[in-house]
Write a structure and sequence with these properties.
2 domains; about 425 residues; 13 helices; 3-stranded antiparallel β-sheet; alpha+beta; Glucose Permease (Domain IIA)
């Protein structure tokens, strides 16, 4: 981190989704802006459809006008003093440029939320608050992000999987950050791009057998970490309905579980939430052994953040409790083999453009603790484990307090022990 503007930069490094060095982010922004200024061709199809919505739907036009107009004059520059986005047309041109770029490596943190970086100030006012909660807007954002995902799954996206010493994912700086990459992950360093066929293929890489051993595989009282993730919060006695949009961001299970018929069984639940970082492993694993009784994918918001938190430039890091109720997410209900656990739910929650929740198990399938159950495409995000009231669960967060300054607990490590049901 540079010595200047530390009061702003401190949140940029959470999860390494944006650089801790503001100069790096400024250089990236300048490069994207320059390319956007040169781009006078037609917009990509999904970006054009978003433009059509803005210019033909009264509410969308109002939202996307207000969200830039409502940025205070004193804040019409980036946190480091650089020019901010002018209007929705400028925003669309920047989106259009990003759509054919995969994130490069940088030792101070990659620009892992590029769309979020464009929307930083506009997310944190009333126009942005209303606009990014609008279903039509979210439908078009989903369409655009899906189109970007197609690029990230194409061979063209492997350009950043190079040995460039600074920006390549197999360059000197990246190897310093991930020194045991070839030993940890299934790959072949003798092949181009280590054998990865796309950026998405690289980002959803698998660990080699035995790299992340399962804690107490035969002891059903031990709950393991479902993701390579850092503890964010532990909440007990969680209500079905609560004011999740206020600064305290209390969980509201009815909305988190999208009014699922199983939701009533969790009134008074315990919720554990943890977040993934940009350099993390991004697949999900079963925290307990049991039978998958239901899976669901819920379309939701992408850039909605809680207004009291204000600017959150590294993505909705400080809105993780809030987005558990409104963001795109997936639910996997598991009836644990251990009756002291009973029915529990894994909730995968998308943050900003990291919102592709891919469930890889099916209803009726029996999973063993540590089995893969799904993944995030392009990135990490946040997730929750929800346990019914009456489950006597004692969490082991490996000597740290939950919060934005916590560090990763390895996937499949023990995070809790369950005692006899009360």
């Amino acid at each position: 981190m540079t010595s200047k503007d530390t009061s702003v930069n401190v949140h940029y490094k959470v999860g390494k989704w944006l650089p801790s060095d503001q100069d790096v982010l400024d250089a990236w922004s300048a490069k994207i802006a320059a390319k956007a200024e040169e781009d006078t061709g037609p917009l990509l199809p999904s970006v054009q459809r978003l433009k059509n919505l803005i210019e033909t739907d009264a509410k969308a036009y109002m939202f996307f006008s207000q969200m830039f107009q409502e940025v205070p004059e004193s804040k019409k520059t980036s946190p480091s003093g650089k020019p901010q986005i002018r209007d929705y047309e400028h925003m669309l041109r920047l989106f259009n440029t990003i759509m054919t770029h995969a994130p490069e490596f940088n030792e101070s943190g990659l620009v892992g939320f590029p769309f979020n970086a464009i929307l930083d100030w506009s997310m944190a006012n009333v126009g942005g608050w209303a606009g990014f909660l609008d279903e039509k807007v979210d439908t078009h954002l989903r369409d655009m992000l899906n189109e970007w995902a197609v690029f990230l799954q194409s061979p063209e996206s492997t350009l950043v999987l190079s040995d460039d010493p600074k920006s390549g994912w197999f360059g000197a700086d990246a190897k310093k950050a991930m020194p045991t990459f070839a030993e940890d992950f299934i790959c072949d360093p003798s092949l181009p791009h280590y054998g990865f066929k796309s950026w998405d293929d690289f980002f959803t890489r698998r660990f080699r057998e035995g790299v992340r051993p399962i804690a107490a595989p035969e002891d059903d009282a031990i709950v393991v970490n479902a993701c390579e993730s850092a503890p964010y919060r532990v909440a007990r006695g969680v209500k079905l309905r609560d004011q999740f949009w206020i600064k305290a961001q209390r969980y509201a299970l009815q909305f988190m579980l999208d009014n699922d018929p199983y939701a009533d069984r969790f009134d008074g639940a315990t919720v554990y939430q943890a977040f993934l970082s940009a350099l993390s492993y991004h697949r999900w694993h079963a925290p307990v052994s049991g039978r998958v009784v239901k899976t669901r994918r819920i379309d939701g918001t992408y850039y909605s953040e809680i207004l009291p938190e204000g600017l959150d430039p590294a993505g909705p890091n400080e809105s993780q409790g809030y987005i558990a109720e409104v963001a795109t997410r997936a639910l996997i209900f598991i009836e644990a083999d251990n009756p002291d656990i009973g029915l529990m739910c894994f909730v995968a929650i998308g943050m900003a453009e990291v919102s592709t929740c891919d469930v890889t198990v099916y209803e009726g399938q029996h999973v063993r603790k540590g089995d893969e159950i799904g993944m995030f495409h392009f990135g990490g995000s946040t997730h929750c484990l929800v346990f019914q009231p009456g489950v006597d669960i004692d969490f082991d967060l490996h000597g740290q307090d939950p919060g934005l300054n916590s560090t990763n607990i390895l996937v499949n490590q023990r995070i809790a022990t369950v005692g006899p049901r009360r």
